[in-house]
Amino acid sequence: MKFHFRIIFCLLPVYMNALAQNGNYELGARSLGLSGANITLRDAYSGFNNIGALADHHGTSVCFSSSMLYGIPELLKIGLGFNGELFNGIGSINLYRFGDHHLSEHKIGVGYSHRIRFISIGIQLSYIQFLTSGYGTAGSMSLEIGGIIEFSPKFILGGYLFHPILSGQRFEHLSFLPTILKTGLSYRPSGNLMANIEYKWNANIEHALIFGIEYLVRGKVALRTGINTESLQSTMGLGFRPGKFRLDYAIMIHPVLGISQEFSVNINFQQP
After folding, report:
1. Max Cα separation, the chain?
2. Cα separations (Å) of 49 from 16, 39, 53, 230, 258?
3. pLDDT value for 272
4. Helix, strand, or coil here: 205?
5. How crowded is residue 110: how many other Cβ atoms within 10 Å of its Cβ?
6. Which of 17-31, 95-109, 170-184 has the highest mean pLDDT?
7. Is the dihedral of CA 101, 164, 49, 197 positive or negative?
8. What is the pLDDT of residues 44-100, one digit of tens each?
9. Which pLDDT tens digit goes with each residue over 135-179?
10. How many domains does the chain have?
11. Which helix (H) or strand (E) holds 253?
């Protein structure tokens, strides 16, 4: 642990800048298994990935996910979400944390999504806080807007915008959070196969194309894979659906840094 912390501390100026510029608060092993091709996924993690897709996730649900980057305990990411019916739509409260007590990032979001015929739209307001031992804290509000259009059961178009607002005190090396825009198309020729392609625009880093494929075996076991041109890291994942529960696991492989893993579980209390 001391060795890992020394590395992070020595790279603190670079890391803090990257941390602020990343703006990536996506969550869920299903999303990771698809390399982040997630804006058309209508599941319990839509509050983290695209609030506009949450309207099609019916019922009351709780979700939890934990991920460790490259096997380093100090780079632990966890999230907890609550979703429930609200005013003819779905409301969401989600909590996110990355890092440890020396260096961490926290996010709390409150969102709402509503479906109008074949269009689902949503909006979320979040507060993001950065904390570094010896450096203090910095915070910012963010606005997230998303939506999906279901042209047919086979073709679904999605869009998502993350935009920081009301940025407050900052670290010396901490620049503003970036504006992020994602758009993508999901092709679902059958109930067992899904192929997603997405384009991601980030104001601070290179743009990216994201590809992900999911295949359901007998409607219970999901096999996933994907690739993201932003990092050129490939991903693989598995999912299992026993009754009210959804269990997911994914790994991301980096040729130099090694393997990152994520495990997720959620329960929908209105599922049979």
Report:
1. 55
2. 23, 6, 9, 17, 25
3. 62
4. coil
5. 15
6. 95-109
7. negative
8. 999 999 999 999 888 899 999 999 988 888 889 999 999 999 999 999 999 999 988
9. 778 888 899 999 999 999 999 999 999 988 855 445 444 455 788
10. 1
11. strand 245-254
Neighbouring CB atoms inside 10 A of 8's CB total: 17
Instruction: Tell me the two tokens of residue 4.
Output: 């890992």
Give the CATH number of the domain where residue 117 resides.
2.40.160.40
What is the DSSP secondary-structure string of 151-194?
EETTEEEEEEEEEEES-----TT-PPPPPEEEEEEEEEEETTEE
Q: How many residues does the chain have?
A: 272
In which domain, by residue range, is 7 found?
Answer: 2-268
Task: Say how far apart CA 98 and CA 38 lie, in whole Å.
Answer: 20
SS percent in the chain: helix, strand, coil, step 5? 15, 55, 30
Find the DSSP H helices in the chain.
Answer: 2-10, 12-22, 29-33, 46-49
Task: Let me know: does 205 contact 19? Beta carbons within 8 Å.
Answer: no
